[in-house]
Amino acid sequence: MPSSTAMKQLSQLATYIATSVTEIGYAVDFTKPYADIRSVYMQKSLTPLSQSVQSSEKHKGISYEKGSSEFLKYMECFVKMVKSECSFSRKILGNATQRTAALRSTIGPPLAEFVAAGRQLVAIAKRLPYSESIFVFDILEKYERDCQASLDAIGQEYDLEMKELTELMQSVITTALKSFYDFMEDIKGKREANSIVNISVDGTVNEMTSNTLNYLKRLILWRDMVEPLLICIGDGGWNQPVMSQSISFDKISFGGSSSLGAALLQKFLVDALDQLCISLQTKSRGYKKPTLATVFLLNNYNYILRQIRSPPLNAIFDENTEVKFGKLVKKQLDAYQESWKPCVENLMDVTYVRGGTIKNALSGADRQMVKDKFKNFNMEFDEIWRTQTAYAIPDPELRNQVIRDVKNVIVPMYGRFLDKYQSTEFTKNPSKYIKYDKEKLERMINHLFEPSA
Hints:
The chain is mostly helical. It has helices at 4-18, 21-24, 31-56, 70-92, 96-127, 135-158, 163-187, 207-220, 223-233, 259-284, 290-308, 319-337, 341-346, 364-388, 396-421, 430-433, 438-446, and strands spanning 353-354, 357-358. It has 3 domains: 1-161, Up-down Bundle (5 helical Cullin repeat like), CATH 1.20.1310.30; 173-330, Tetracycline Repressor, domain 2 (Orthogonal Bundle); 347-446, Exocyst complex component Exo70 (Monooxygenase). It contains 17 helices and 2 strands. Strands 1-2 form a two-stranded antiparallel ribbon. The protein is rod-shaped and about 120 Å long. The two termini are 68 Å apart. One of its GO terms (molecular function) is phosphatidylinositol-4,5-bisphosphate binding. This is Exocyst complex protein EXO70. Its main location: other.
């Protein structure tokens, strides 16, 4: 920016030229050279920011952090330069008509370059999966919060129209709305060739589950943008493809929160989790072993429950959602306990009471029955242990709960059965049938679902 003395001289010169028609006999239009010089200055100043956008943004992907977009810096500097240029022109160009004409020519080229960079970024976002194009919400928020009011004021004060910029932001809005639909389609599994292919061999939390919850948490970062967009498409509109011509852009208001927006955000998130549950149930059918399918659902439902109980999602979901997933977790815990039923059945003692008295002497049939029970228990326990040590429960608290539930049933029952018969003469070779003591049994159960297994 020139010094105050230079500014005064330039202003005097401009005034003289503008009013010298009677003195020199013709009018001198100096707005073109003014615009050419100032426009080149603006472009040179902004070009490095434009170039940095193309080299960084498309590589952000799911690791994108709020506020890190190079385009945000570009947008901020562009608006500041436009404001500065308008202020400069007011000091130099006293004639309002000439000033408006000069500003249109001055701002035009840098505006075109800014819009071109934005359009290229939007094109990249449209090609990316919804989880990697989240930066469009950041662009929208920056524009709505920090830029639009200033640009609207400039437009009114200096009679400037920035139609290209308005169209750019409409394409950003369209892309953001499209991501809602793409997100729901992804959860429904409609973008997967085979929904049961992408399941782990150990039943751990599925990638779809973690991706879904991570995306929902990231959306909350731009809640003030998301809620008005959901109002725009209405309840359930996220299940329909978005067409730009059907969007009432002028009716979208990003000015603060509303009860309707909050309700639609909650409905959107609940719908997403409902669809996720359906997809998880479908995926669980890809496991040939029912117990592994149960562990898979247990891990995923528990992961969802943990996430909706924690910030920021706990501020969105109500108690009903938490209760629902609590019941789903409990159902899978109960179903898992059923996998130990063969062991439990072999520890049921039918020789304890006969005719109301404890039976001390065992008949041949009783001795064979005890042998079979020990033998069958060992076989069932070994098979369950061998199989389930390959399963995973990554949540330490859940793993401890599952193991504790198993031990609370198996260890006492086995202990009573062992104490009852190890001192009897059910066999001449006890070591053939009594494979475990209570301590070893408990230690082995403790090794179920180990992360290193």
